[in-house]
Specification:
alpha+beta, M1 Pyruvate Kinase, Domain 3, 7-stranded mixed β-barrel, two-stranded antiparallel ribbon, 14% helix
């Protein structure tokens, strides 16, 4: 049977769409296509390709280890133009890794948000609408990897094994990746709103 109001089978639990507000704490970009770590800047000028000149800009990208269903190096759409992290989750990762601090630039952040609870668990299709007019569409969470772990190790001398520890401790805390839905300029200190869509757990047997 289906619920007459939602149109969903009775066994599907619907979570209504909602809006949550946050603040841009910091904006960053790479200095070139060879760089992984980012540098703080005054503003991000987003175009449809992403951040001009940034390592992850472009309409397309080449597949890697995250896409085992394609041969490595296959050209595919670039849904990973922008990396979005959380002030609160960075602090949580640092605590779990027993670090005094975990700076967002070490792990390639482009935008750092403050005030959005459990940022990494925000679902795909969420629209991040920034006060200046730019909109980023969330593709999904960004799984932590050893590349970021090695970058942390470079900045924390004397601690061995951080490249492996980061993927273990940062799971579901490493932030989001997304693409530019509407170009615009994003600056630190401006407000933003996450427009979270309706959600349900897909159960093909329901």
């Amino acid at each position: 049977m289906s619920d007459s109001e939602t149109g969903l089978p009775d066994s599907f639990k619907l979570t209504r769409a909602r809006k949550l507000a946050g603040t841009v704490a910091q904006v960053l970009r790479t200095e070139g296509v060879e760089d992984f770590q980012t540098t703080a800047c005054d503003e991000l000028d987003l175009i449809f390709e992403g951040i001009p000149g940034d390592r992850h800009s472009g309409f397309t990208r080449l597949s890697g280890g995250r896409e085992p269903w394609y041969p490595r190096g296959t050209e595919m759409v670039n849904e990973r133009q922008i990396s979005i992290l959380s002030v609160e989750e960075l602090a949580e990762i640092a605590k779990l890794m027993e670090l005094e601090d975990l700076k967002p630039e070490w792990i390639g952040a482009n935008i750092v948000i403050e005030g959005l609870p459990r940022l990494t668990l925000i679902p795909p299709r969420t629209r991040l609408v920034f006060e200046g007019g730019a909109v980023i569409r969330v593709d999904g969470d960004n799984a932590p990897c050893r590349v970021a772990g090695r970058a942390i190790a470079e900045n924390v001398p004397g601690r061995g094994g951080l490249d492996l520890l980061f993927p273990q401790k940062a799971r579901r805390l490493r932030g989001l990746v997304g693409f530019v839905e509407k170009p615009g300029v994003i600056k630190a200190g401006e407000g933003m709103t996450a427009h979270i869509p309706e959600q349900w757990i897909y159960d093909p047997g329901a």
